[in-house]
Specification:
alpha+beta; 570 residues; five-stranded antiparallel sheet; 38% helix; elongated; 19 strands
Length: 570
């Protein structure tokens, strides 16, 4: 750029440097400042090309501005170089103060790295300080302060005098990089302040609009909304409810302020409500209406603050999902029940059985409570336990309500004890065969209709379907409310009855068979079917298939043992 014997050149350069530094402070935005930095290198420091690489928030450097070549600018502006590659470059070559000069003899290893670069071919240098087209000169820009945080790197190329910069040129470029760092920091600060002021004004306007919008959205929302207290003695108390929620629950707003959701929720859903988190919590439960009925709703919670440091409130959105719940129950019922008879289907039967038995058989220590466990029954019951319907047996079986009734259809309470089965009471089978030993278990009655195929073949499927529907009705009428009557498929039915002894199960089979035998009228025609019952017992340690197969086998034993006249039908 100059020689030490030409001080007038230094003075001219200093004037140019002063002018381009002054231009740095006139830029209005960060983008303008970056472009001014690149233009100042070309205009004031006499380099033909200049590139400004700015550090991004993720640490990599992006080409933010370029000056001296429109072709190079279009090629590399916006491209990103990894921070590791840049740190490698700034550690190579010769250190000129904060500057880093990499001569072409060392820089050839950087020709294929992943830092965006632009260079032109040219002749080899003719003398020692002549600039080679592959020489590289970098001016790091550091933030002011002791930390020396890297803000970016100015890369320059092709000095107009074709020589390496001397001490004065190096000092001028280093000084310019320092002033550029200050200008970039100031531009960022101004930009952040301007954005903050604009954001603050917008936030204030938005807050005023939001308050009005919230009031209107809350009051006139088509679904229910409520604001409740958080914390303190009145935690959960409803402070405000909109018209939609008042209409949904049939209670005026003045009355709603006396309650919390815990006062209104269905007793069975109180646990669901208590497990619902305040922020972002969702729950589906039932709320009580004024007339004593309950409606299914979906609750969605969010926490809001009255002021920056003021009390927080719980905003709850209440959506009426009664129709959806009804539809879901209908779909679930269709999936788990037989379309013809309305009885639980095979999958639902297996699900209920699986819920009642576990993989572990009852322990010997459970004998006093549950009876004696016979390991011979693991793969099938011993002869002494094979109970089938006997027409000569007639005890006074009467349907009795369960002592403990649960929604899954089986009555049992969780038992104490150790191990992973603490929540489960083992199902055991009576051990006395036809003699009732006092043990109560889960009886599995497998029912197969006799003569049904001949009715189907003779009168058609319409008559056969009507017979199946009537048999299902008679079976359901003959059992207790908590018992399960399921259609396994075809003309096979299964009855699950818990809490029965051997005599109770045999009497139940007799009663159900007697209920099926009477004629069934279909389209003015009387048809009759018989029924064969096999009695099995569900016992922990058995699989569902083993339980059903056991009852099925006993049904066939009973079917073969009865005289043909007793099985004739149609």
């Amino acid at each position: 750029m100059e020689t030490e014997s030409e001080p007038y050149v230094r003075l001219s350069t200093l004037r140019q440097l002063h002018q381009v530094v002054a231009d740095l402070n006139t830029a209005r935005s960060l983008a303008d400042t970056l472009q001014t930095v690149a233009d100042g290198v070309v205009a004031g420091l006499n380099y033909e090309l200049a590139c400004v690489n700015l550090v991004r928030p993720d640490g990599d450097l992006v080409v933010a501005a370029f000056a001296g070549s429109s072709a190079a600018e279009a090629l590399i502006t916006g491209r990103v170089g990894p921070r590791e590659s840049w740190e490698r470059r700034l550690a190579m070559g010769v250190a000129w103060g904060d500057l880093r000069f990499i001569p072409h003899t060392e820089g050839w290893v950087l020709m294929e790295d992943d830092v965006p670069q632009w260079h032109t071919d040219g002749p080899a240098p003719r003398f020692e300080d002549e600039w080679h087209p592959h020489d590289r000169l970098y001016a790091p820009m550091y933030a002011s302060g002791s930390g020396r945080e890297l803000l970016g790197v100015i890369s320059v190329d092709r000095p107009r005098n074709g020589r390496h910069p001397g001490p004065w040129g190096q000092e001028a470029l280093q000084m310019y990089a320092s002033q550029s760092a200050i200008a970039i920091s100031n531009a960022r600060l101004r930009s952040n302040m301007q954005r903050a002021l604009v954001r603050l004004e917008r936030e204030q306007q938005a807050l005023r609009a939001s308050e009005e919008s919230f009031r209107q959205a809350f009051e006139y929302a088509p679904s229910g909304m409520a604001i409740a207290e958080m914390g303190g003695d009145q935690h959960g108390r409803l402070l405000r409810t909109n018209d939609a929620l008042c209409r949904l629950l049939g209670r005026p707003a003045s009355v709603m302020r006396r309650y919390s959701f815990a006062d209104l929720v269905h007793p069975e859903d109180i646990g669901t409500l208590l497990r619902t988190s305040a922020e972002g919590g969702r729950a589906e439960l039932r709320l009580g209406r004024r007339d004593g009925t309950y409606v299914w709703v979906s609750l969605r919670n969010s926490v809001v603050a009255d002021t920056a440091d003021g009390p927080r409130f719980l905003l709850t959105h209440v959506e009426d999902i009664e129709e959806r719940k009804r539809h879901e129950l209908q779909l679930a019922h269709r999936a788990s029940h037989d379309a013809l008879t309305g009885l639980p289907n095979s999958a639902e039967l297996r699900s209920r059985l699986s819920a009642r038995i576990c993989e572990r058989p009852s322990a010997p220590g459970d004998e006093a409570a549950y009876g004696t466990y016979d390991s011979a029954r693991d793969g099938g019951y011993a002869t002494g336990h094979e109970a089938s319907y006997d027409t000569s047996y007639d005890s006074g079986y009467e349907p009795q309500p369960y002592e403990h009734e649960h929604e899954h259809g089986f009555g049992f309470e969780p038992a104490g004890g150790a191990g992973p089965y603490d929540h489960h009471v083992h199902a055991v089978a009576p051990t006395g065969g036809q003699v009732d030993d006092g043990t109560k278990g889960l009886a599995v009655l497998f029912c197969d209709l006799d003569g049904f195929k001949s009715i189907n073949d003779r009168f058609g499927h319409h008559t056969g379907d009507a017979v199946l529907i009537e048999v299902a009705r008679r079976l359901t009428t003959g059992v207790r409310d908590g018992d399960t009557v399921a259609r396994l498929g075809g003309d096979e039915f299964v009855v699950l009855a818990d809490g029965l002894g051997s005599a109770d199960a045999a009497d139940l089979a007799l009663r159900l068979r007697n209920a099926i035998i009477p004629p069934i009228r279909v389209d003015g025609r009387a048809v009759r079917v018989g029924a064969s019952f096999g009695i099995g017992w569900a016992e922990c340690g058995m699989t569902v298939e083993e339980v059903l197969n056991s009852a099925d086998q006993r049904m066939y034993v009973e079917k073969r043992s009865r005289a043909k006249v007793h099985r004739r039908a149609g």
